[in-house]
Design a protein that fits this description.
Layout lengths: L1 H16 L22 E3 L8 E3 L14 E5 L7 H10 L5 E6 L14 H14 L10 E3 L6 H4 L5 H16 L5 E5 L4 H9 L7 E5 L10 H10 L2 E4 L6 E3 L14 H5 L4 H12 L1 H4 L4 E3 L17 E5 L8 E6 L2 H15 L7
Helix pairs in contact: 5-6, 6-7
Length: 349
């Protein structure tokens, strides 16, 4: 019994030792000329205007070379996956893994095996649009479980893939950590941490939305918020609700949809189909306007975030760098850059 207690103690200490923390905001870069992983602030000289995160943001004129792990639940509700595929096709983004974690909380029913198909269909639309298969990893399935309790520490092919990719990138270039995008529940990343707690120090997690909606699976969200460096985009700035689609600032408005369909590629046609049919986009008086399962876009569009602060997000000991403002000016920045990418004919070879 004593030996087992010691083993558990050492395991606990190992997890605590590997907790990755953010440092306080740098407001005067002359006082912090040599930042380290965990340093952040706004408008560092020589870098693009906007939120600077060390290890992610690159100098003016340089390309972001951090590999990206994209982990979402239902791939079919927002359009950052299509933008990501287009960026990969242009050679501006490296997708290291495409993961689907088909579970949800908040009264929706926990298991959603049907969502696996949406991930395969998303990737297939990209391939049929002319994006090279070599740029798009196969879909890897994360946590599948019948209940929240059954999902705890549950291993999966994707959990082991997390460990492999994060460690390999860290050995190769510790100054350019893997970017992890969590667009749904963080069950797979949490289970990966249980396999190897050291991965927490070796990546940056963009999470939509650990503070409220996607954080409801508390076992996973608390573990991730307590141990990883998390950039959380959510709460009030998450979905930007507009009375009608004609008032959208982030997504193309109805009179612009023809720009997408005239490209005559399945991936863009599907986007317009979603605008016409999904409830969150057509609901009268509250048409959701945003790509916001893709907080990772910040790495390529640093100016999209106006303000951020460190805050407790899932209870005591949990912390995230939480985005607190996304104004109309930033909405336009995102739209201009994403539309320029999606409409670039070089994407569709």
């Amino acid at each position: 019994m004593r030996r087992n207690s010691l083993v558990l103690l050492f395991l606990f200490l190992a997890i605590v030792a590997n907790a990755a923390r953010w440092n306080k905001e740098t407001k005067d870069w002359s006082m912090n000329p040599h930042p380290t992983i965990g340093d952040w602030g706004f408008d560092r000289p020589g870098y693009p205007k906007g939120l600077y995160i060390h290890g992610i943001t690159v100098k003016e004129g340089k390309r972001v070379k951090n590999p990206l792990i994209y982990d979402n639940d239902v791939y079919d509700d927002v359009f950052d996956d299509e933008w990501m595929y287009a960026m990969a096709s242009l050679g501006q983004l490296k997708i290291a893994a495409l993961i689907v974690t088909p579970v949800l909380t908040d009264g929706w029913g926990f298991p959603h095996p049907d969502w696996i198909q949406t991930a395969h269909e998303s990737r297939q639309n990209a391939l049929q649009s002319g994006i090279k298969e070599s740029l798009l990893p196969q879909i890897t399935i994360g946590t599948e479980a019948e209940s929240e309790k059954a999902g705890e520490r549950k291993t999966s092919a994707a959990a082991h893939l997390y460990v492999k990719i994060i460690n390999e990138q860290y050995r190769k270039n510790p100054k350019r950590p893997v970017i992890v995008n969590i667009g749904g529940q963080s069950a797979t990343l949490a289970s990966a941490f249980c396999i190897d707690p050291s991965i927490a120090e070796k990546c940056i997690v963009y999470y939509t939305d650990v503070k409220v909606y996607n954080g409801h699976y508390e076992w996973a969200s608390k573990l991730v918020a307590k141990n990883f460096r998390v950039v959380s985009f959510g709460d009030k700035p998450w979905w930007v609700y507009k009375p009608t689609q004609h008032e959208w600032n982030v997504l193309p408005r109805p009179d612009e949809w023809h720009l997408l369909t005239e490209m005559n590629v399945p991936m863009l046609n599907h986007i317009v189909h979603q605008f016409r049919n999904r409830g969150e986009y057509i609901r009268e008086g509250a048409c959701a306007d945003g790509y916001h399962d893709g907080g990772f876009m910040h790495a390529w569009i640093p100016g999209m975030h106006k303000a951020a602060e460190l805050m407790e997000v899932r209870g005591e000991g949990t912390e995230a760098l939480h985005i607190t403002a996304f104004t109309e000016a930033e909405e336009r920045i995102v739209k201009e850059q994403t539309m320029r990418t999606l409409l670039n004919p070089k994407c569709y070879r």
